[in-house]
Amino acid sequence: MNASFLIATKKLCRNIALGASILGVTATASFAQAPNYPTQNIKMVIGFAAGGPTDVIGRILAQHMSASLGQTVVVENRTGANSLIATKEVAKAKPDGYTVLFASLSHNVNRLLLNEKADYDPLKDFAPISLAANLPLVLVTSYDSPFKTLQELVAKAKSTPDNVSYGSAGNGGSAHLAAAMMATQSGTKMLHVPFRGNAPALTEVMAGRVSFMFYPSIGIANHVNDKRIRVLAVGSAKPMEDFPGVPTMDSSGFPGFEQTAPWVGMLAPANTPKPIVDKLNVAMVQALNLPEVQKRLKELGAIPVGDTPEQFREFLVKDQARWAKVIEASGITAE
């Protein structure tokens, strides 16, 4: 056998052994991070204003996850551009488990609307942790609004185009998509007024300066009881017991609105070690299964989920396809 060939073979074997050793050390280091993790505060970035649905649920989970993880989960609101600012910040964060994103459906929608300009990929740039909850939408207007039924609102929109306005948490958000879908189905033209979060948008609706909006059912019952808003229709498959006598969008002539229910969930930057992702998932699912959390979320109109990272990833893939169809049918653009 050629001597040079034998020397090359020995060198190759040494390199393979060295590579395997390095990989083994890397894997061991990765798995070793989980038992000691976390050793410092965890930052939960939320792309919407304090007091809105995503923020409220995120803070409930942050409180209970802090207790189980032994370190404080600190909520940081990074508002603007329908959570695009927050999403990009977390996508570029160090994948060490100390920065996570509490996201909504805008996670997929921003990318669909902006394409490469979004500067992130909702699947490739993130490690899903768990889907937290779904929040059926309800169509609300001011309690003193001239619109007492959905039919009256649609009739006004048909008779005076652009005189009926609707609020949202930002371009491409759940409220925007739902209202645009309703406008398409009813053949009307209405004015979209985006805000930096659902909470400020709802404030303007309650004041009567914006005609209506689609809002996650979270906390709405309290405003109804205080006679600050009126619910004209619910976007769930069946009537909601919190709003007796209020029809569904489907029964009002607008089918398919139960699919517009926004979701909220937690993601980490891509390449976050799986043991850390799994530890965050366990803490989050445990929090969602606590009786007091279940009770609180039900009071807010949210439907708790709490799935695995793999299930959440599968959900995100299907969610992306669903909203791509809605955006195409409604003709929504990034502007």
Automatic annotation (TrEMBL):
The keyword Signal applies. Pfam families: TctC. Keywords: Signal. Residues 1-32 form the signal peptide. PANTHER family: BLR1237 PROTEIN (PTHR42928:SF5), TRICARBOXYLATE-BINDING PROTEIN (PTHR42928). Belongs to the UPF0065 (bug) family. This is Tripartite tricarboxylate transporter substrate binding protein.
